[in-house]
Structure prediction request, 720 residues.
Amino acid sequence: MSLPAAGLLELTAKLVDIPSVSHDEGNAADFVVAALGAAGHLETTRIGNNVVSRTHFGHPRRLLIAGHLDTVPPNGNERAVLEAERCLGLGSADMKGGLAVMLELARGVVEPALDMTYVFYACEEVEQHYSGLIELEKADPALLLADAAVLAEPTAAAVEAGCQGVLRIGVHIGGERAHAARSWMGVNASHRIGRVLERVDEFVGRRPVIGGCEYREALQAVRISGGVANNVVPDEAKLVLTHRFAPDRTKDEAFEAVCELLAPALDIELGDAVALEDFALAAAPNLDHPLLAALVDLSAETPRAKLGWSDVSFFTARGIAAANFGPGDPLLAHSAGEWVSREDLEAVYASLEKLVSTPL
Amino acid sequence: MSLPAAGLLELTAKLVDIPSVSHDEGNAADFVVAALGAAGHLETTRIGNNVVSRTHFGHPRRLLIAGHLDTVPPNGNERAVLEAERCLGLGSADMKGGLAVMLELARGVVEPALDMTYVFYACEEVEQHYSGLIELEKADPALLLADAAVLAEPTAAAVEAGCQGVLRIGVHIGGERAHAARSWMGVNASHRIGRVLERVDEFVGRRPVIGGCEYREALQAVRISGGVANNVVPDEAKLVLTHRFAPDRTKDEAFEAVCELLAPALDIELGDAVALEDFALAAAPNLDHPLLAALVDLSAETPRAKLGWSDVSFFTARGIAAANFGPGDPLLAHSAGEWVSREDLEAVYASLEKLVSTPL
Prediction:
């Protein structure tokens, strides 16, 4: 194994210091093009804020490694903090560490034993229809063809199989407007949403075991809003829920389960309504594909379930076997104190370098 | 009694059709100036969107009648609907009907037995520091001098004594941010606000009897907000409460009572905090003043407590005896279906015309 000279940790810090909140990944894409555009063994294509670098050696198999350029909004952690053995900062774990590994693999392994496709894409952290993968597919579907795909999402250097699906559910709560001084004449929609939040908070997620991996469901209120004026009993409040569901359920089954949970707190006559606003499909584990099985062998950890959603779902839905494998603790993703370790970065780099360098 | 030729109900409809949501009362003020500016018995002064018309006959007593030009935001009721016996539409009850009575009194009673001050002012429905009365007082305090004041707020043609105070309380709810797929790593501030809303909804208002009038307290959540991104467990949510309190409590006592109610649902270590953001003082009943006692005699109804806040508080705080007396059901104020009846308009006009025309 030959580690890149620059140092993966230092490169991660450099990437953290390029702000790239969803919809604003232009500078990060520029950086990728600057790093890979001139490499003789790569054909690099930019579409919007997405960059695809491919080899064309004519090998019988092609492996795609993908990572998203965007982060969630900052939380006082905009700047990278580089310590001896880890890098902190927005996106360090999710997933600028993974991008650093991809960049170094792409420019470091100039004669891979598999044909390689490296995909750096925008807008993974927002509604799926914004996804850079969809933008790339629309522009040129051939860019995304491969035998298997690895998403370099944070998995703490273990292979995480499949992914849970996501529903975004809008809950509209009604009421009756009145002057706040005579509140008993109205029905306060904000007070009523309190009862809905209570149901949501009481949700107990299923933990099904599928293909040897245990999934764990979740239901969270991610946005609340309501109010007309400071002296008016509001007749409208809005709740946005996110539901993570295991791959043994369809999106319709998952939505039905949430509707049943909320039903006792809702009143159709007051205008309450529940709507499925967006969804991303779950993906069952798929570790029997030879490239992914080889990756499991090369990684030091036991494979497990991917609890978050990831674009494993995108590739699985298109018949491409896919798994998650990257540096960084997935439990730290989107937290203010997220970080990635040198150890993880080097372990993931080493496993992927071997996978990419070994004819299969 | 001589009723105005144009008809109070028709004039109310005309006023409803002039949009005048708080901060946007320019056209309504123009209308008042056009109606009163040329009257020989009145000195009319405009300051901002506030208009004051005064007589200067040298009578020993001066009565001030005040009404606010602004309304709450529309609720599908922007246009006046004029029926045979009532007028519907935004502000019809609160308080364009009262403004119609004031306009007709001001131009109709050209030789009052008391000196008169008619005050049409802006921004009563928003934070008190925007109030047109404060703007007028700053520009020229003499404009607001009087022996007694009547607020032509909707009281269904009964004298409503004093007024309840108002607190605006901000409740900041903390949490711990995490990826929504691993929500057990974080603490959802929106879920936590559900418990606070529950406490608010369980509030039971005191109903003290003061000066023969029963008051009734209220506590309502008027705004809620929270959320970071659709895949993030939010670490922050905000609640705005309005508390109406009876005139036997100071603002500090009233605030303390709300803090005690909320305390069991709050956790300082998570960053929860309660702050008094704005307040308006309560005013005790003051019906023993001769002008107000005369008004009680002239009105057909038994006097009662004013449950909402009103600028009775402004005048009481400045040593001017004040009460509420106007057309329109106070229970309809700020509701989508508010209306005012011809009967109320004529009853209030008749009582005030007698009060204004009788030497005291």
